[in-house]
Fold this sequence. Notes:
Layout: H1 2-28, E1 38-40, E2 47-49, E3 52-54, E4 57-59, E5 70-73, E6 78-81, E7 86-90, E8 99-107, E9 115-120, E10 124-126, E11 135-144, E12 149-151, E13 155-159, E14 168-171, E15 176-179, E16 184-188, E17 197-205, E18 213-218, E19 222-224, E20 233-242, E21 247-249, E22 253-257, E23 266-269, E24 283-289, E25 292-298
Parallel strand pairs: 6-13, 15-22
Antiparallel strand pairs: 1-2, 3-4, 5-7, 7-10, 8-9, 8-11, 11-12, 11-13, 14-16, 16-19, 17-18, 17-20, 20-21, 20-22, 23-24, 24-25
Amino acid sequence: MKKANGLSWGISVFLLVSLILINSNVTAKPLNTLAQKQIKDEGTGNSVYLPLLINGEEIPGTNHPPFTPATPNPANGAGGQSLNLTLTWTGGDPDGNALTYDVYLEAEDSSPDFLVDGDHNTTSFVTDTLTANTTYYWNIIARDSQGVSKTGPIWSFTTLNHTPNTPAFPNPANGAIDQAQNLTLSWIGGDPDGDMLTYAVYLEAGDTTPDILVSENQSGTSFVTEQLTGNATYYWKIIATDSGNAAATGPVWSFTTLNHIPSMPSSPSPENTAIDQVLNPTLTWTAIIGKLLLQIAVMLQQPVQYGALRPSITFRIHRLLPARQLAPLNRY
């Protein structure tokens, strides 16, 4: 009986010492060196580590850095993007830690260092209104709750360039008549992206498809013509071009210049009431049409008797007929 009790006591002591040694070995080993079970995430292919379980308790193991931010939207190098854009990406953490993201975004700088949002807790970011026809660069830094971070690659996209507004509201109005021969043409332009514009002006008389360029690369929305021809129909159009070389061609407009009435003929030769004139005189006078000074000479086609009234003289400018001999001492 005593022998049995002694054996039981010895076994108990052995088991107690073994447990002490086992517990001592477990606690003596740093937790972060204990192997964690590693599995593959089926969606991303990234490695995910399961927490340690010791005596049924979850013990944190080694803290691994977050996954590298990936799968950008818009895709890297994408063009024609909206000026109001939502950037998205994929993230995650192999240890299941909560993450925050720093978002860097900058125009025309391939190493963006402008922080537009820090400690962002989702994988999407809504931009402010962007500049048209501009290349933007962006990247994401993921950071876990332990302060361990992972920086993603730099991505880029280019915004859409809208065409300028179609030139409109011409002055003079389309089809206007009786316009001055020195004229200021004007129109309304503009650009939906706020780009600086230049204008080309085409103007031609008597051609419904004007192709004579009278002004180019001008920034203003008006043009002063040179001296125009009277009683002529002119056709004109405007082409607007923005800084991204997008262009908008306006419709063809027209106007007709004033037909000026000739001035009262003047400066007669011989002078009015002149006497002692030759029997084969040349009659001349002047008339002003616009800025055109005409001097016309005609020969009398037939004499009239002294004292008789002649209401008009028929003549052709391009054909002068010889006059008959006038009778002396007659008034003509």
